[in-house]
Amino acid sequence: MNSINQQQPEHNIKNLSGAEAVEKIKELIKQSSSCFFCSNIKTGMPFATRPMSVQQVDEDGNLWFLSANDSHKNDELAHDSFVQLLFQGSEHSDFLNIAGTATISYDKAKIKELWEPLIKVWFTEGIDDPRISVIKVEPTEGYYWDNKHGNAIAFIKMTLGAVIGKTLDDSIEGTLHV
After folding, report:
1. Torsion of CA 65, 97, 175, 103, to 10 degrees
2. What is the DSSP letter of 130?
3. DSSP 8-state assignment for residue 54
4. 4 in helix, strand or coil?
5. Percent helix, strand, coil in the chain (nearest 5)?
6. How many CB atoms within 10 Å of residue 138?
């Protein structure tokens, strides 16, 4: 049996590492900074999932979040720092899966750097709210699914492939090692 990737007439696997991996992470998160932030993974219990927004991806590929220090998430991270972040940028592309290790800090300078006025919805005392913590996720591995030439070209290729009965989807995917 052939896999879908073996039916592609074009090469569609591209593993990325180092700076190239960081740039791909930034590109995909720019499409959608919201993710499913999964924690409580290694405990043997069902993992916990909640939507979160990435505030920043730094030059090393670390992802930064603001979180309430009294949240279930922070409590779970204190017992199990392993996390999984799942992103979907559009209906057919810009998918990203990041596994990593999370650390919690109360760095006031980083809070100030990440602060946006809308965050006051969750931290009603503003930038000095004592409940604000910073979560830094250092990726240990990742995988992405995207298309090579944008959604319009991908749609044309998929439509043509459906008409002629051939796998043409302009996809590109691969591992990410930061």
Report:
1. 30
2. T
3. -
4. helix
5. 30, 35, 35
6. 16
pTM, to two decimals: 0.85
Q: How far apart are CA 84 and CA 99, in angstroms?
A: 4
Domains of the chain: 13-177 (2.30.110.10)
Is 142 in a helix, a strand, or coil?
Answer: strand
The Cα 85–Cα 96 span in angstroms is 8
Per the structure block, which two tokens stand in for 64? 């930064």
Q: pLDDT tens digit string along 80-114?
A: 999 999 999 887 778 999 999 999 999 999 999 99
Cα–Cα distance between 13 and 26 in angstroms, integer? 19
One-letter amino acid of 66: L
Radius of gyration of the chain (CA): 19
